[in-house]
Hints:
The chain is mainly α. It is built from 13 helices and two strands, in the order ααββααααααααααα. 71% of the residues lie in helices and 3% in strands.
Amino acid sequence: MLRLLHIEFIKLWNNRASxxxxxxxxxxxxxxxxVAAIKFDIGPIKFHLAELGIFNFPYIWHFNAYIxxxxxxxxxxxxxxxxxxEYSNKTIKQNLIDGLSKWEFVYSKFLTVLAxxxxxxxxxxxxxxxxxxxYSDYNELGIIFSDLEFILAFFxxxxxxxxxxxxxxILVKRSAFAIGFLILWAIVEQLLFGFLGWKxxxxxxxxxxxxxxxxxxxQRLVDEPFTRLSAVxxxxxxxxxxxxxxxxxxxxxxxxxxxxxxxxxYSAYAxxxxxxx
Length: 277
């Protein structure tokens, strides 16, 4: 396992574009901490983002997991490019000639997906813990380590999304087309949801069906956190709006993403197994 993972990281690190994207991705994750420095003092108007409570435990786990997920496209490009390079450089054929089975080839790519997801999750955990210890109003251990399921959900969200990208990379063989297909698929999911709600069933049923779509199921793992803020809750009460939503990470949402992940990895292997290289 470590041998396969080592081979993949050598390939990635020797690719200049991949190296730049990986470094840029982790720099952007680090820049989340700079949000704490956003402060405006204009006469009587004083605005300090950290004072809104976004870095309070346990809210920070939810907030950072949601925000960090937006940067996953950087690694998505790395993953589809990783597969495109295998075809363009013919290293996939050479690996198979050298004795690597097609399953070991796919498995090595999936290990890379797991490694990227785990490193990203650990990175967000450390950044969130540091910001929370510096700015949170609540520092009791029970509060600090509650709601950590959002960090786990962030990990599963990345694993599912990167597995989809891996499948697209094998399916399409070209990184630009794979990313284009990914964007197109996201649009198709929204159009299909609209069609179901408009022509087939009620909007409530359409929302339930939508939660089973690949990208939507991954997105639902970490719902938006902004309406959890006390300032937003108070504003909603003043306007007569009930902003109490279900933000929890549910077992069935996790199960749906795990099933899609298994489907993508098996489909990638089945596709490679049938393909004449």
